[in-house]
Amino acid sequence: MTAHDPKLSRRSLLAGAGALVIGFHLPRGAKAQSGAGAAYRPGGNATFAPNAFIRVAPDSTVTVLIKHIEMGQGPFTGLATLAAEEMDAAWSQMRAEHAPADVKLYANLALGVQGTGGSTAIANSWEQMRKAGAAARAMLVQAAADSWKVPAAEIKVEEGVISHASGRKGSFGEFAEAASKLTVPENPPLKPASAYKLIGKDGATKRLDSPDKSCGKAQFTIDIHAPNMLTVVVARSPRFGGKVASFDAAEALKVKGVVDVKSIGYGVAVYANGMWPALKGREALKVTWDDSAAEKRGSPELIAEYRKLVRQPGTVAGSHGDAEAVLAKADKVIEAEFVFPYLAHAPMEPLDGYIEWDGQTAHARFGSQFQTTEHQTIATILGLPPEKVTLQTMFAGGSFGRRAQVSQHLAAELATVAKTIGPNRPVKVVWTREDDLTGGYYRPLFVHRFRGAVKDGKIAAWSSTLVGQSFFLGTPFEAMVVKNGIDATSVEGANEIFYEVADFRCEVHNPKVGVPTLWWRSVGHTHTGYAVECFVDELLQAAGQDAVQGRLALMGDKHPRAAGVLKAVADLAGWKGPGPVDGRARGVAVVESFGSFVAQIAEVSMGPEGEPKVHKVWCAVDCGVAVNPDIIRAQVEGGIGFGLGHALYGQITLDGGRPVQTNFHEYRSLRIHEMPEVEVTIIASTEKPSGVGEPGVPPIGPAVANALAALGHGRPRQLPMQGGSV
Questions:
Q1: d(CA 219, CA 428)
Q2: What is the DSSP secondary structure assignment for residue 221, as one 8-state letter?
Q3: pLDDT at 177
Q4: CB 270 within 8 Å of CB 252
Q5: Across the strands, what pairs with 486?
Q6: 338 pLDDT band (50/70/90 cuts)?
Q7: How far apart are CA 518 and CA 345, in angstroms?
Q8: Dihedral sign, CA of 64, 19, 160, 210?
Q9: pLDDT one-digit tens code per residue, 453-496
Q10: Which terminus has fewer CB within 10 Å in the chain: N or C?
Q11: Is the peptide bond before 629 cis (omega within 30 degrees of 0)?
């Protein structure tokens, strides 16, 4: 199917004879409680611009347009659940599709742009999608009432069937056309939680994207094949910041299928009729790199520099009391230093993208995580007004933050290679696994230093300093994100903790390094969660306090949700202390991230070769209203496996500025037989939904580390736990 297939036109995206379409106008910065706006009706002079969330077809299928990318985390199912709940639709009639790129209509209400990130998909759409469903239901009910000449209040809707006590019944499709002529209610009433039939109910919904993915019908960017299409791979400098000095393409052009070779400044693009000739052509290239401005420091040098810097005063990110004065008078100061390596995201589908450009218009298709900025980037590079550029979001095989780029470098590369070869030649850019792992945009390398004191069984003082790169300093987003010189994503989870310590201080350094970095699943919490939870455990141990009861005492009554998950996980695991018992010990950790609270207990032993074996993980999660419990469990279980694999094995090391790891034989992941048994309990809550895609990651590393300490092996100070020395 080509990009110009009439089935994918803007009109056909929303239109259908006799269909009901419910839309909203969502101005930039709109709040989550935004209600229904103007309706967009088929037929006549009505506008069919793709700005609707719900379509009801004549066959009664309900299609929900999803403004967030589906990359495995479940928004197709979650957002459709919200709409279906308020419509009283049968789950079997629900469908989902990616919405077009249109920030005016499909903005993430938490971010102000159309994009997916920060575990906000369900959170920002909680009321929006329910109101869309409620409006659709109200209009269908009114259409039926008008047809049957009965009061709308007497109409019932159940499992997608509209009925009246007189015995009359009808489907959504039967009343769709009539309903489309009615005025959309501005603020339709929403169901009370007591009336939910889908939200929060185990087994009530099945994932909408799974059937097509299971049978191979689902389309990813890598699946795109179009007439006259060129596949493009780019040779990039082995050092970050390197540029092309010169190149010889003679041998590359001899490879059958290679069409052209072009410089794009920072690299050399090989255009070919297929992936294999593109790769062979790139292998045959002879490129001389200008590394005069490239980063040449390796991991050992950077860590040594960070370790010096972490002992110097930094920018204060959080402070109360006078931690330094208390530490100066303390009988004993407990110190700990933690080193975190660069980490790659390594999603199963590396970066790729497709674009058609005829000189006047452009149509791009790829797994776009931030549609607004990527759409703008493509338009700018091609010199086109935004309205001449369309962007279709595809399924993506994972991301973990990799596709949510501050620099928009994939969109920029896609537009650049298209412009360089010239119009009327579709191109598909593909990054290999090696390109992805050596191409940067890593979780930053960080060093944390802690100093603490205990007195009378309590923590008397806490001081921490962090050193690591900022995602935003030096970028166009700096003015929007960096406040008082502090990138909040660098210190989140460390500058404020839910343990009550009278004298507290947190400082940060953000050195400039030429390695491209990018948020990684759970962003700052991926390192702060480990460092904070390991250090508090160490202080409680020094104070003679139990790891669970000591944490609860430090929380007091000011952090009930954190205390709630900690108590719940302790009950779930039958916590009686860390052990060890029969060669196994338990460690605990609790982290708040993205508005959700997650506590985990890990049961660990040490193998004969000195490698930790994680047998079981108990987990309690409070993410507000649990829209789809099955998906929440799956996301938390996946987060535990993802976090555990990286804590044990994950690292990207630099040698003279060059990444060492190139593929999964060197960038070690958790293997299937190493995945522990996981038991998850979801805390019942009336709070609005919060994130679940990322919060499962941060607690697993420190829970394992604290269990290792209980076994007498100490908490690992440098990650990964296996092969972590540099």
A1: 14
A2: G
A3: 87
A4: yes
A5: 483
A6: very high
A7: 9
A8: negative
A9: 999 888 999 999 999 999 998 887 788 788 888 999 999 999 99
A10: N
A11: no
